[in-house]
Design brief:
41% helix, Undecaprenyl pyrophosphate synthetase, 12% strand, disordered N terminus, 284 residues, 6 strands, binds farnesyl diphosphate
């Protein structure tokens, strides 16, 4: 088990007064000592949001970018240390029409251009994960610059998963680990879970406590496969462009009502037999 203090390098400051009245009302119901450390979101439904309004898909993505800004700033105000958003998967890159992929890339670049000042003002640190070396050079360049510019911010770390796939992350981790084992001449039976964790893109952050998916689909879609082993999942019917900070807070309220057992026995789990050897086993 990794000590939790290892991940608490950033201790974001609270700015509750900057929440909207609606957000403050939900925040007031939360237990501040039980806030999740890491929330991950599968942002889904941009296309359907647009289709419902007889608009082109790109309008849905544009509204989706506004939702990214608003949700991230609410996360910063409540002092959420880690927020990870699935913005563009490897499969999106391979399977979407070129025009849509190209639009998403331009939108990402414009988002970073237009939001750098807001990230500075909100003390947000920007990071990214995925096979980002396959993205257009000017987008990579912008991502690197914003990451460097915000590296010293101590508030919420906003991580965008871009050209990301959970299985390819594991392939990259296993390749790196195999190279390390070979270099150190270690036998494979020495490999531990911790070794694999160390080579993930997310090695520097705790696993998500809460995974939110918008638009009602009950799928993981190749997102953070290793990291969500014990993550609580919250699915909302709301399409991503309509998702706001208040909905993040509602998801956190739902999360706080759950009991996390990590494979153990919960508070209502019943009595444990003192002497299990006395119990006669009948299997029919
Ligand atoms: C899923 O909706 C969303 C995406 C594939 C891209 C996510 C992009 C954004 C939220 C906007 C840009 C983000 C940033 C950070 C600037 P979908 O197109 O799969 O929707 P559908 O399932 O209804 O078709």
């Amino acid at each position: 088990m990794r000590p939790i203090g290892e991940f608490l390098s950033s201790s974001p400051s609270l700015r509750i007064d900057d929440l909207s009245a609606e957000e403050r009302a939900v925040y007031a119901t939360l237990k501040p000592e039980r806030l999740p450390q890491h929330v991950a979101i599968i942002m889904d439904g941009n296309g359907r949001w647009a289709c419902r309004r007889s608009l082109k898909r790109f309008v849905g993505h544009q509204q989706g970018a506004k939702a990214v800004q608003q949700v991230t700033e609410t996360a910063a105000r409540i002092g959420l240390p880690w927020l990870t958003l699935y913005a563009f998967s490897l499969e999106n890159n391979l399977r979407r029409p070129r025009a849509e992929v190209s639009f998403l890339m331009r939108l990402l670049k414009a988002y970073l251009d237009n939001n750098l000042e807001r990230m500075r003002n909100n003390n947000i640190r920007f990071r990214y994960i995925g096979r980002t070396h396959d993205l257009p050079a000017e987008v990579q360049d912008k991502m690197r610059r914003v990451e460097e510019d915000t590296a010293r911010n101590s508030g919420t770390t906003l991580t965008l998963a871009l050209n990301y796939g959970g299985r390819s992350e594991l392939v990259d981790a296993f390749r790196a680990l195999a190279a390390e084992m070979k270099h150190k001449q270690l036998s494979p039976d020495r490999i531990t879970e911790e070794d694999i964790h160390r080579h993930l893109y997310t090695a520097h952050m705790p696993d998500p406590d809460l995974l939110i998916r918008t638009s009602g689909e009950q799928r993981i879609s190749n997102f953070l496969l290793w990291q969500i082993a014990y993550t609580e999942i919250f699915v909302t019917e709301r399409y991503w462009p309509d998702f706001r900070g208040v909905h993040l807070l509602e998801a956190i309220a739902d999360f706080q009502g759950r009991e996390r057992r990590y494979g153990g026995i919960g508070e209502d789990g019943g009595e444990v037999e003192d002497d299990p050897d006395r119990i006669r086993i009948a299997v029919n």
